[in-house]
């Protein structure tokens, strides 16, 4: 028996594509969303992700209204790894500024923080000419498909995220932490179980260990929940990695991931993770006006390379505490 009420919406299911609801409205998108809010949230709970087609979303104001209707609360991004544009509408961001010719691998948004979004919302205002899908993958299915010994090691040790904040690549520390006061940054790091060190050149280095496997806060399902592959050095384009290693050294990369004990994660493991993700990927090309709702714990998402203008707005909602997801390693703020 399902833990969730049956959706009142007709949800289309096709292999290799995310579940889809066709709104096909001609008028007020916020009004339609308000009328179907509970059914949409039930559909996300049941399927892990739902693409709503035919809403006709055209601008940040109307999109922000839809986001606010669907969310229990909207979150402000913390510890960003790449810049975003912030819109005047509360809680509305651009998609991450990432080179359009490079893949953004599967990941769970802010899975390295102690409080992360339970719900991700994406709205397409301008669809690219080619590519650029926000694809999804079921985190429980991915976990089940990974080698048992590898999963056990990550359950036992967790994963380690290392970061070096510089002005050239990624978000500067002032942007990532929302303050230009180093003392505030240090207070945040202590409160969020992040080890930090300031270098003589003003560059901030941080390390944080997190669980790679968590339990869904509602269903209790085990989920592969992390950004191990996405933020690893071997996911970077080879020429980018080579430049960064030459410029900053192997330990000075803007971001990298390791096993929880600090041992490097080999290129073969990163390749394996991405291959398993690909086997469980569902994708659908964006159409202008689309809305994609994603359970951020149960479902990973990616962004595929694209050509032409692409405008996708993002909101992070319904905060979930890592402590409420039965993490496999203990994280203790200081």
UniProtKB/TrEMBL annotation:
Residues 19-316 form the TauD/TfdA-like domain. Its EC number is 1.14.11.-. The keyword Iron applies. Its cofactor is Fe(2+). InterPro entries: AlphaKG_dependent_hydroxylases (IPR050411), TauD-like_sf (IPR042098), TauD/TfdA-like (IPR003819). Keywords: Antibiotic biosynthesis, Dioxygenase, Iron, Oxidoreductase. GO terms for molecular function: dioxygenase activity. The keyword Iron applies. It holds the Pfam family TauD. This is TauD/TfdA family dioxygenase. It comes from Streptomyces ochraceiscleroticus.
């Amino acid at each position: 028996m399902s833990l969730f009420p049956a959706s009142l919406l007709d949800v289309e299911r096709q292999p290799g594509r995310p579940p889809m609801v066709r709104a096909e409205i001609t008028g007020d998108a916020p009004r339609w969303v308000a009328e179907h809010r509970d059914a949409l949230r039930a559909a996300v709970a049941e399927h892990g992700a739902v693409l709503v087609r035919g809403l006709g979303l055209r601008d940040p104001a109307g999109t922000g209204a839809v986001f606010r209707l669907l969310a229990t609360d909207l979150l402000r991004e913390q510890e960003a790894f790449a810049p975003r544009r912030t819109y005047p509408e509360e809680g509305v961001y651009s998609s991450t500024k990432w080179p359009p010719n490079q893949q953004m691998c599967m990941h769970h948004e802010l899975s390295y923080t102690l409080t992360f979004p339970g719900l991700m919302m994406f709205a397409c205002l301008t669809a690219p000419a080619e590519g650029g899908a926000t694809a999804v993958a079921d985190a429980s299915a991915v976990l089940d498909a990974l080698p048992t010994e590898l999963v056990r090691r990550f359950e036992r040790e967790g994963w380690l995220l290392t970061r070096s904040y510089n002005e050239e690549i990624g978000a500067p520390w002032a942007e990532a932490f929302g303050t230009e006061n180093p003392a505030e940054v240090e207070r945040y790091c202590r409160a969020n179980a992040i080890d930090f060190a300031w270098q003589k050149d003003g560059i901030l280095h941080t390390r944080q260990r997190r669980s790679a496997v968590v339990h869904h806060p509602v269903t209790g399902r085990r989920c592969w929940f992390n950004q191990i592959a996405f933020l690893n050095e071997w996911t970077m384009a080879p020429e980018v990695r080579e430049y960064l290693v030459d410029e900053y050294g192997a330990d000075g990369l803007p971001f990298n991931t390791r096993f929880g004990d600090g041992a490097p994660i080999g290129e073969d493991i990163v390749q394996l993770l991405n291959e398993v993700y690909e086997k469980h990927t569902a994708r659908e090309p964006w159409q202008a006006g689309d809305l994609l709702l994603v359970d951020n714990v149960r479902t990973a998402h990616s962004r595929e390379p694209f050509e032409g203008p692409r405008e996708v707005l993002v909101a992070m909602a319904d905060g979930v505490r890592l402590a409420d997801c039965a993490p496999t390693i203990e994280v203790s703020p200081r």
